[in-house]
């Protein structure tokens, strides 16, 4: 599993960090950092929730 972010769409809502803090970090300026670009399978559910609930649809999971 690999995470691809469309940074043109991302608006720093930090929903992703709420769902999967092991993988996504949003700083106080709303800048997103992906901590694990290829997260382990154990985190799949959390990453899928982050992708689903991201309000701008910025997160794509590539298998
Ligand atoms: S939830 Fe979506 S828009 Fe918000 S910081 Fe994460 S990727 Fe960006």
The amount of beta strand, in percent, is: 15-25%
Low-pLDDT segments: none
Count of separate DSSP helical elements: 2
- What is the share of helical residues? 10-25%
**First and last CA, distance:** 5 Å
Q: Taking Cα atoms only, what radius of gyration do you get, to the nearest Å?
A: 10 Å
Instruction: Write down the CATH class.
Output: Alpha Beta
Bound molecules: iron/sulfur cluster
Number of domains: 1
The main sheet orders its strands as 1-4
CATH architecture: 2-Layer Sandwich
**CATH-assigned fold name:** Alpha-Beta Plaits
Q: How can the largest sheet be summarized?
A: 2 strands, antiparallel
Shape: globular
Order of helices and strands: EHEEHE
Structural class category: alpha+beta
Oligomer: single chain
Describe the structure.
It is a single chain. With 63 residues, this protein is an alpha+beta fold. It has a single domain, classed as Alpha-Beta Plaits (2-Layer Sandwich), CATH 3.30.70.20. 24% of the residues lie in helices and 22% in strands. It has a two-stranded antiparallel ribbon with strand order 1-4. It has a two-stranded antiparallel sheet with strand order 2-3. A hairpin with a 5-residue loop joins β2 and β3. The site of iron/sulfur cluster (SF4) has 15 residues, from α1 and β2.
Essential attributes:
Alpha-Beta Plaits, two-stranded antiparallel ribbon, 4 strands, binds iron/sulfur cluster, two-stranded antiparallel sheet, 2 helices, alpha+beta, 63 residues
């Amino acid at each position: 599993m690999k995470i691809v972010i469309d940074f043109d769409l991302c608006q720093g809502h930090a929903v992703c960090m709420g769902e999967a803090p092991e993988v996504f970090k949003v700083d106080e300026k709303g800048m997103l950092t992906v901590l694990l670009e290829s997260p382990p399978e154990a985190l799949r559910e959390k990453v899928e929730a982050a992708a689903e609930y991201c309000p701008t649809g910025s997160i794509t999971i590539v298998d």
